[in-house]
Amino acid sequence: MKRSFPSLENLPRLLWGLALLTLPVTSFRWFPGLGESTLVRPMSLYPLAVLLPLLLIQAWRKKIQLTWAGAFVILGIFTLFTFFSTGVGALINPVPMRGQTYDGRVLRALVTLVIGIAFFVSAVWMNKDEADLRFTVKWLFAGLCLDLAWSGLQAVTFYTPLLNKEMVTHWQLAFSMRELVRTNRISGLAYEPAWLAGQIATTFFPFLFAAVLTKYRLTRLSWLEPALLVLSTLVLLATYSRGGLLIAVGTSGLMMLLFGRDVLRSMWTWFIRGFKERRFTALIFRLSIVITLVGVIAGAFVFLSQKNYFRRLWEFNADTLSDYIVNINAGARGAYSVGALGAFEEYPLTGVGLGGSGFYIYQNLPDWALTTVPEIAKQLNPENRLYPNPKNLYVRLLAETGLIGFVFFIAFIFNVLGETLSLLKLNVPWARFAAVAGVFAWVAIALYNLTQDSLTTPNIWIVPGILVGLSTIQSNKEAQ
């Protein structure tokens, strides 16, 4: 019997599918040459490392034609300026801190930027039409199913006696840098609950929400997307991630106002008609919907209120904004951002070089952080070896690439939004589905970047790359 293997032409799709399938694994243990402090380790980087060279070889042999997107130009200019700002930072040459040198941090930061761009470029090149989009989203959903399954396993471990926590911890440590979260918060295949919530809000929720809103289905199973949306919402609640929940809920509401007004109008018309008809069964049915909706919201509120970490959002005793930030356990994060902005104030145009903001954070910490934030006191201990980060991508870019680099990056972001909105002009179901998902992801990523500062995180590159690839090809077709 003859065995069949993937042909060279089909191998890129297989590698791309594997990259999407493994996307939820953010801190893969088995990466050679990385220290324990390197936490962002996307497992999907392995298939991607084979995919990109393979695409370039096929393009060189004229087997395929690769897309040249306008976003590449802006992103390229931003990248070139990071090299310039890094050179400026080398001239400043900050004093080494806790065993960290400027050259070492720069090399690390540049590698993370290259990895992030690799995710974006791969997504652009692997998405040219509706068939590619359907392939991509199906594999994304396959990765989501694995994530939901592992999250369910964690939930069984935390809340039932069926599985031993120590045993499941060993299972998780077989592939992840992180053991199970001790506070019984679901982290899925990600490093921590906040990372899982960020994945759901910026990568999976956009396509699930768009599929339900536009009624565009990727399989014959019409219930699949609504079911995955409900399960993803439950897992999102179980992460107890304040940022992830607020981003998902807030962006969903905004998308309903932008793209779902017809749906809202028809729902309201149907709801009011039942009261006008004054039929007993119609009235009872509509009242039961209201009671169920109120019950779900109240139940979610009670569930989240079980964690003091979440209750502090509304249970606080603070006279100033800084007091409130400290009260909700965001004091350290806010202090790091303020400290990084001190570097921006010193070098506002060029910044201090990619990866160099940490050398300036401790010396620019606000006074309130030194006395009211225990984490800051712990970090200032001379025996501590942690290198601080701004915890906010926009603040990091201002500090490390200055106002000029920051403007280039913002230009890139808005270029992605423009490319996404251009799909609406096609006036076909799949393009509307992609545009709704793209705008959802764009808003969610813009908010998510307020809470993280890594350029390696695939979440901020994958969906924008998908939309840029689709819109570029469609624009080229219209121009011909």
Description:
This protein is mostly helical. The chain is built from 20 helices and no strands. It has a domain of 334 residues. Helix 1 runs parallel beside helix 5, helix 5 packs across helix 8 and helix 18 runs parallel beside helix 20. 67% of the residues lie in helices and 0% in strands.
The major sheet is characterized as:
none
Model regions low in confidence, pLDDT < 50 over at least 5 residues: none
Order of helices and strands: HHHHHHHHHHHHHHHHHHHH
Could you say which structural class the secondary elements and strand pairing correspond to? mainly alpha
Main features:
globular; mainly alpha; 480 residues; 20 helices; 67% helix
Concise description?
The chain is mostly helical and 480 residues long. The chain has helices spanning 11-21, 45-60, 70-92, 102-125, 130-159, 165-173, 193-214, 224-239, 242-259, 261-277, 280-305, 308-311, 321-327, 331-346, 358-361, 367-372, 374-379, 393-422, 429-448, 462-479. The radius of gyration is 24 Å and the shape is globular.
